[in-house]
């Protein structure tokens, strides 16, 4: 079994078993072994799209499904989080959804949250961050999303959201990606006034974020 798995890894994604699809009355039958491919969000993709995605070096693969029909899922990869501590982010010009310029110097720390409108965990995290912002006056909360202002406004209206204490920045173009190499939503980092990374958190672990904020506040 281990040998078969090793062979599978050596040849993925360069081989795919042939298949024969037979259509009958109200039924579809697949003859022969085949791979099914899925993106990181669980959506079906073609073999070519799978190959193209792997060439970006943003993903690893996870094998699911059955022995008869293996499912090859893309999974976002990121560096060990501790290696990002101490990295310095560039100070770039960012404007929130109301056109206000983001000033990373105005607070002792800034929590930068990376999210998009399709990520339910992201939405829940932003709701929590909006609550935390009331208790941490020395911390600025910024949410970066690749979504357009129109898409963000539509989302907030549909879900009746009011993020009054978070500065939402639309049209984020991955300006920090070359340094952070984080491709998972939601993710958040904490930087100080000098844009030095003090903490990193992925996957919406708000409890860990809260503990980190308490620790940083206790250092003062």
UniProtKB/TrEMBL annotation:
SUPFAM superfamilies: Thioredoxin-like
InterPro entries xrefs: AhpC/TSA, Thioredoxin-like_sf, Thioredoxin_domain, Thioredoxin_ResA/DsbE_sf
Pfam (any one): AhpC-TSA
Highest taxon in the source lineage: Bacteria
Annotated GO MF terms: antioxidant activity; oxidoreductase activity
Protein name from the UniProt record: Redoxin
């Amino acid at each position: 079994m281990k040998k078969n798995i090793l062979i599978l890894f050596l040849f993925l994604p360069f081989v795919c078993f042939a298949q024969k699809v037979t259509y009958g009355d109200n039924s579809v039958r697949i003859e022969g072994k085949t791979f099914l491919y899925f993106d990181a969000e669980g959506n079906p993709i073609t073999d070519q799209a799978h190959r193209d995605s792997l060439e970006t070096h943003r993903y690893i693969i996870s094998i699911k499904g059955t022995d008869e029909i293996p499912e090859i899922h893309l999974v976002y990869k990121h560096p060990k989080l501790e290696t990002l501590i101490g990295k310095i982010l560039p100070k770039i010009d960012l404007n929130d959804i109301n056109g206000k310029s983001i000033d990373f110097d105005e607070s002792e720390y800034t929590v930068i949250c990376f999210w998009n409108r399709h990520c339910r965990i992201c939405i829940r995290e932003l709701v929590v961050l909006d609550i935390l912002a009331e208790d941490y006056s020395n911390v600025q909360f910024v949410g970066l999303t690749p979504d357009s202002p129109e898409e963000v406004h539509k989302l907030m209206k549909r879900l009746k959201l009011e993020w009054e204490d978070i500065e939402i920045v639309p049209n984020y173009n991955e300006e920090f990606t070359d340094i952070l190499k984080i491709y998972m939503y939601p993710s958040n980092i904490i930087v100080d006034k000098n844009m030095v990374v003090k903490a990193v958190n992925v996957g919406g672990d708000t409890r860990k974020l809260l503990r980190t904020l308490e620790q940083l506040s206790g250092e003062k």
